[in-house]
Design goal:
With 324 residues, this protein is of the alpha/beta class. The protein is built from ten helices and 13 strands. Bound molecules: oxa(dethia)-CoA.
Amino acid sequence: MPIKSVLKATGAYLPEKVLTNADLEKMVDTSDEWIQQRSGIKTRHVAAEEQTTADLAIEAAKQALERSGLSPDYIDGVIVATTTPDQTFPSVAVKVQAALGIPAGLAFDVQAVCTGFVYALSVADNFIKTGQAKNIIVVGAEKMSSIIDWDDRTTCVLFADGAGAVVLSGNEAEDSVSAQGIHSTHLYAKGELRDLLYTDGGPSSTGQSGHIVMHGREVFKYAVTFMADAVNDALAENNVSAEDIDWLVPHQANIRIIEATAKKLNMSMDKVVVTVDHHGNTSAASIPLALNEAVEDGRVKEGDLLLLEAMGGGLTWGSALVRF
Ligand code: UT7
């Protein structure tokens, strides 16, 4: 029987500090009304100055590991999706590995911006399916506040901090979509569109990490088309229809993008996990944060069919179909 990567447990961490739209009104020329109307965001969490992405990632991974019931000795991989590592190297993943007392195994970061978690999930799934690893912790963690230009109202009202994690475990299962585990991942990139969303710096160019620059309107247009395509690819490959999906867990960039994708799928918003209103856009952390919230409050239950989808800088985009 083939091996499937089963989502054994989820975990999350949000920094204590909450930044409201009213707070942002005092910082830049914006309004609560504009932010809510254009993005759906009301509040977001922002890390303390001394808190790093690894600090957030460690908390989320710790919670997922504890809930999985696995001893750190059994974890043979840590993959962290992040765009905001503490240092150029070493990776955030090796810090998570050390902090959790995981004695050995692979550990590295994946950088695909807001699509990072879907990319990391896919990489981990392939290690597990081929038998190269049995249990992998996949984390999406970001301190986006560290690369925001706090004078740029077009971006500073959108991005935020946080971390989410899952423990994936290899399990022999029937090759049927009714089995638990990851059934497909689809990853895409179109590098010619990289100048629509980027940082104006980096180690080998300016020597500084730089700040986010986004051509929001254009990114918005691509986001709706690309995410709907990625979702349709997942449905087609698994021979399922949108009605079979229990929960859509989308990247949380903008409520209007999420609603447009749901509409294209003819899915009711009652089946869509939405956290953008209180998390903002946490890039690679947004999907595992949303998933964890829906698991914790009982919406997502064992056996549910989940469709994850994301799109971000690069441009990159992708989807994953998972039986929880
Ligand atoms: O996560 C990675 C992928 N990222 C995304 O998917 C983000 C995609 N883009 C978006 O979500 C939306 O494009 C935004 C939320 C970024 C912007 O919404 P929009 O409806 O596309 O607005 P816009 O950029 O077309 O700007 C409309 C107006 C502009 O003024 P003019 O030119 O019409 O006079 C902006 O200057 O709103 C102005 N504006 C603001 N006004 C108040 C831009 N930012 C702000 C602001 N407060 N914070």
